[in-house]
Fold this protein.
Amino acid sequence: MKKVIMTLGLACMSYAHVHASEGLVRLNDTELSEINGAALMNLTYTDPANAHASMKAENIGFYKMGLDAVMELNANIKRIQLGCGGVNGAGGCDIDLENVSLSGLSNTSDGRVGSSAQLTNPFVEFAVKNPGSAATREIVGFRLSADKVVGLLTIGTENTSTPNGINSLSGFMKVQSDNSQKINGLASTAATRYNLFGSSQYGNLAVTGRLQALGLGGAAEVSFKTTAGGFNIPEILHNPFTTAAIAVNGKRQTSTTLTTQVKVPDIILGDDSSGFSESGTVAYDPVTGNPTGINSLGGKVTAEVTSCKWFACAIAGKGSQFKNVYMSGKITGITADLTLEQSLGLIHNLPISSAMSLSLQKQAVKWAGTDAADTAQRGWWLSAKDPVEIGDVIPQDLIVIDQLFPQIATAVSQYLDKNPAKTNDLGGLLGIGALTANVGTLNLSSTPLKLNVKNLTLNGQSFAPNCSGGMRFC
């Protein structure tokens, strides 16, 4: 790398030494060598041969002018709109942010107003194509940057269920919970509004399967389908999940997607004398506070016989109805592949400790010092090299999981078709009282469920305004 350094101030002082009584005194080389100084401003040039491989191929070099200093900045900007229309087309802006505040890391109003973000070694840089040719050289990009920015960046006015702040974003930014390079979170789910085997707006909830009676195996077997009843899944709090850090990387983005797998605690089914509630109760680990299991009454279910074999036909022929069926057993291995599509307008609180830059380029440019996956695209581009740590992802509201019901019904049906339930309840088979049946242990680990969720309000995204006097933005 070829480096040119311009020294301001010292250039005037290197020849002479000011002495109060003697005036200007000439210094020899030895005396001059004992004087230390530093450049306030420096200029560097990186030729294409020493740039990123993609820039070498494009014959792009870089001219950089920077300050060897730490600057402090506290700022409120009502709106930033860059790259609206133009070569990138109508329908939005490359960057559209409202109510932007940059301050020190304090997240109290008084603390923010009285503090400033620190920008270490700010600089401006130009990307020049064909730098060695006076006839064909052209500037294809420039960026405003700093080696490190430390401060709190907030966007928007409030953390509510209504998106505000980030309308669109072009750029690169990794988001993680802490320095583990992962997203950690706690998902709490709402109690179900429909019985598992009842009707639902999400589809068919009927469970089918086989039931063998009195220890006779296939000689006394019926096939059945449920027509009503069942059990509800109760409210489940603080179910932990972990996934890899996410990267916002692209043009004019309005949302980002998080995917992870959430384990649902085992559901233990009791019969009508167990004392378990039909809606269910949840057991929690006394140390971690995480859920460990769900106790629920396995009924009341209404079932209809769809076919019968041998001795079973004498007791419960096709079309027979059982109005009071209670089940015992366990449903284990329940997992849900969670896909969260999150509006960027619900992301507000971004503690920054990273090299950052805002750039404009005519073509894709790989700027030096950026993340390996970060190539600035045509137009305006906002970039952060190091991950932004937003803490644990904890939705403020309960997640509705009713969409899982048809999937659970299908998975249970497939299991009971291969592994029939058992009953020795002759009175129940004859219609004398309730019918109890043991479904055994239903392991559903081979059939993960799909849970799609959009736009959750997150606890960790609340922030104090960078204003005095109780104003949300100033």
Summary: The chain has seven helices and 28 strands. The chain has two domains: 11-75+117-148+348-386, 185-340+395-460. The longest helix spans residues 405-418.
